[in-house]
Amino acid sequence: MLIGEIVQQTGVSRDTIRYYEKMGLLQAEGRPSPFNNYKAYPATTVTRLVLIQRAKDLGFTLAEIADVLDLWANEQLPAAEKKVRIAGKLSAIDEKIAQLQSMRANLLRSMDEVLTNCRD
């Protein structure tokens, strides 16, 4: 499968596919022809890209995805381990939300102080 076919099927850009390849998330099978410089990718590349995009949408970093991608893609990651990793990500998101709410409250207080001082 050539990169153009993968782009059409997944909507993931060529640059992103190449970047994922450099990171080791994807692997090309080699050159299909000695007459051109095109890389061939296995048919499983589409499935891997879908998994990567889904994990990114769930808030996982590429490093986290790389850590478990092969196990997850091959259904070798036990459900309990998937649950632990997802729960960990939920916890990190909850912590980030709390930090953002605190920052918001601080900004509102600062804005109130500025408005109060402007009236004087």
What this model shows, in words?
The protein is mostly helical and 120 residues long. It has one domain (3-119): Multidrug-efflux Transporter Regulator, Chain: A, Domain 2 (Orthogonal Bundle), CATH 1.10.1660.10. The chain is built from 5 helices and no strands. Helix 3 crosses helix 4. The mean pLDDT is 88.
Give the averaged pLDDT, no decimals: 88
**Order of SSEs, N→C?**
HHHHH
Q: How many alpha or pi helices?
A: 5
The number of strands is: 0
Q: Which stretches are poorly predicted, pLDDT < 50 over at least 5 residues?
A: none
Q: How far apart, in Å, are the first and last alpha carbons?
A: 70 Å
CATH class division: Mainly Alpha
Q: Topology of this protein?
A:
Layout: H1 3-10, H2 14-23, H3 44-57, H4 62-73, H5 79-119
Helix pairs in contact: 3-4
Structural features:
120 residues; elongated; mainly alpha; 5 helices
Nutshell version of this structure?
This protein has 120 residues and is mainly alpha-helical.
